[in-house]
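User: Hey, my collaborator sent me this sequence without any context and asked if I could get a structure. I don't really work with proteins. Can you help?
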Amino acid sequence: MDLFKRRRFLVEIILLCVRWYCKYGISYRDLAEMMQERGTNVNPSTIFRWVQRYAPEIERRVRQYQGHRSGSWRVDETYVRVGGQWRYLFRAVDKHGRLIASMLSDRRNAGAAYRFLRKALRAVRDYPPSSITTDKLASYSKAILRFQDEGLLPKDVEHRTSKYMNNIIEADHGALKRVIRPTRGFQTMKTAARTLTGFEIMGMIRRGHCIQRKRRATGEICLVNKLFGLAA
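Assistant: No problem. I've predicted the 3D structure and written it out in structure-token form, which is a compact way to encode the shape of the chain:
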């Protein structure tokens, strides 16, 4: 297929490396050694390029399989080191912990909150929120009011500021950080955003938060392969 044109490795090998890297929280070097034990000699830098190219593609193709999301949102941000500095990863899940959207930003202000909520609303346009729970960051209140003034959010959408109700996304931050840790930080915002997209999507698939995904790893493999026309 054109997407993998001029790649000297099989599509199945490429997707396996992207899945494993984004799923297990390992270094590129360790993954290259694991592939070598399976009889495939691939350079860590090659795996890096695969993740940069195909992790966002998996995210784009899996959207149609995300299914319903609850209207009760949990929104929060966590810190990610990029280029030696701390940046902000905005994230939203529903009350069941199912991913809605995420966005990396170098700022934590009303403009960034607005851009993130706009992305989240577009991601689940068929399932608009009935309530949005955040921390006490004032930027969220300003962004939500702006959406309501623009008619993009109903006036009756409830904005709650509750640390207790946001425990589910706080715990999810921890799971994501465990996968991020082996990277020891990212070099650029671009590479960080693409890699984090892969981490988020593989986490979602692994938890079974996609429709038509069977249980266990075999279901995950079938779904990812199906996205690229490799499975019946």
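In plain terms: Residues 72-177 form a domain with the Nucleotidyltransferase; domain 5 fold (CATH 3.30.420.10). You can pass these tokens on to your collaborator as they are.
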